[in-house]
Amino acid sequence: MARRAVVLVKILALALAAVMPLLSGGMDTQQVKLLATKFNVTCVVVFGDSSVDPGNNNNIATPMKGNFLPYGKDFFRGRPTGRFTNGRLATDFIAEALGYTKAIRPFLHKRLRPVDILHGVSFASAASGYDELTANLSNVLPVSKQLEYFREYKMRLRQLVGAGKAENIIRNAVAVLSMGTNDFLQNYFLEPIRPKQYTLEEYQNYLASCMSDDVKTMHSLGITRLVVVGVPALGCMPLVKTLMNQETCVEKYNNFSSSFNTKLNVKLDIARKTLGMKIGYVDAYGIFQDAVNNPKKHGLIETAKGCCGTGTVEYGDTCKGMSTCADASKYVFWDAVHPTERMYEIIAGQAIDSLRKQLLA
């Protein structure tokens, strides 16, 4: 079992926080746009890992990329963008529902337009995490670098619309922070450095403190509305179940996800009180399990395997050039780790509902 666990974390080294699950649901886009106008929502800015990276990693020297087919086969014009799914991410659907853009561009896009600066961009980097070491292990953007790019974004925004209007845009923006999976799968359970320094619980506390510091920095940079996505039920990923030779979710991997989310929420409660920010929390753990355990409720059929290849082990490079299922919209997973565009669309519906209840009330 120990050897199998080591194999699991090695194979999952590229499994980059595959989900940003927020419950299933539909979006009344007209109502959402009215709410955005009423509460003066100006744009969406995104920080995190592969769950919200639309292609920043395409432009940095890292092997952690998804810019090849069949990734993106259902995106506009059937082209891969760097998103680890067949089409769009939840953050793309959220931005569209708010009335801004159908696809959030990565900040490192070589042809970033003024309209992209106005509507918001993503600074997320697949394989990143709350722990700086996690990002450094894969040569991707740690949160500190993502925030550095956010400072650059603010400068470009000021040049575009002036200092006063730029500050107003940032103050009324909605920020999304989605990461944490890689800190466990790609770092703590794979590399020897952190286990020598921390027990698992101590490391969870360390990550929660890192997240808290990130939120404080965001606040100092003018962000007042934030949605934080918890860590999903990692044991329900098809790849994890395959490698552990289980047909049901692997409890061991789900347990540390759940306990970490509890620690995140404690820190977020403190941030709400001390910083005066409006902070929403997305229960990725419970919500994604609900989609897996009750697929018909969400219009889904296949939950045990992904659409790419056999759907049991392929993801990232091993999905490259593979055949895919006939109808990805009936699948929860696109590959053995990451959700389909349909799942992200379902996710976005509840994300908007969470936004409305927790941030725009």
Automatic annotation (TrEMBL):
Transmembrane segments: none annotated. Gene3D superfamilies: SGNH hydrolase (3.40.50.1110). Residues 1-17 form the signal peptide. CDD domains: SGNH_plant_lipase_like. Pfam families: Lipase_GDSL. Keywords: Signal. The keyword Disulfide bond does not apply. PANTHER family: GDSL ESTERASE/LIPASE EXL3 (PTHR45642), GDSL ESTERASE_LIPASE (PTHR45642:SF7). Belongs to the 'GDSL' lipolytic enzyme family. This is GDSL esterase/lipase. It comes from Hibiscus sabdariffa.
